[in-house]
Write a structure and sequence with these properties.
Layout: E1 16-20, H1 25-36, E2 40-45, H2 48-60, E3 65-70, H3 76-90, E4 96-99, H4 117-138, E5 143-148, H5 172-196, E6 201-206, E7 211-212, H6 214-222, H7 226-239, E8 241-242, H8 243-246, H9 248-255, E9 264-267, E10 277-279, H10 289-303
Parallel strand pairs: 1-2, 1-4, 2-3, 4-5, 5-6, 6-9, 7-8
Antiparallel strand pairs: 9-10
Helix pairs in contact: 3-4, 4-5, 4-10, 5-10, 6-7
Length: 310
Amino acid sequence: MTKWSAGDIPDQSERTFLITGANSGLGLHCAQSLVARGARVLMACRSPERGEAAAAEVTETGDGKAELIVLDLTDPTSVRQAAQQARERTGDRLDVLINNAGVMATPLRRTADGFEWQLAANHLGHAALTWLLMPALRSSPGARVVSVSSFMHKRRGLDLADLNFERRGYKPWAAYSQSKIANLLFAFELDRRARAAGLDLVSVAAHPGYSNTQLTTNMVRARGSERIAEIIGLLGGLFAQPAQAGALPLLYAATAPGVTGGEFYGPDGFREIRGHPKLVQASKQANDPETAARLWQLTADLTKVKPDPA
């Protein structure tokens, strides 16, 4: 693979994307790059105010168009409403879904339904959204679903018997790692089931390496340390790659010709921390079909959303 960059994105006119967490960081840069190539981008954001401002900014900078869809991935009602709005606005035709939004290493917090916060925001909400959008994805030949994971998925394992940390002690990084393994398991299982169902759909995964986004500073801020968050932000600017570079593996997975289902893309530099997109390897557990099938069904039980494809 050559040193692929945003300038290599093919023309995206007449194509529609939905990106979660698109008002900042990786999602915002993906939206900007795609609109610059003529795409219509639905920016799914939790904050209406920040989302509207970001959509207006993105639209001004490209030939395509960006518009807001309000989405709170930790709220099942919001997920259903966002999926329904997306289907109505697009006439049930969506070319690419980029499941990008996420939180990282937060203190123990639970949703109104009792789910651990990182599991809900990073995995459960995205899985439910994907299933609910499948009718629109089925209508678009060659549709893609890109699930955003992390190289941190290799740090800890996935405990299917206690996904919500109800019996074991809660550890923020263990919960984050678990949610990122879940992203990969879901992406690979969706690809297997799409193939088995004969769907013209590609499900892939990507990770941004160590990128200078708000994830790290928000993590520290959530622990009540504004001053340390500022310092972490400065260090990120020195050592992390820019968010524009971190977005490249996501954009490659979403747009590059020749991408095949079940693949995983990340940076090509040392330990996949920075660099241009390349094929990377997921952990052994993330590649286990039996674990993926069990998580698929457990996710359906928890979200109360019918899996598609079944």
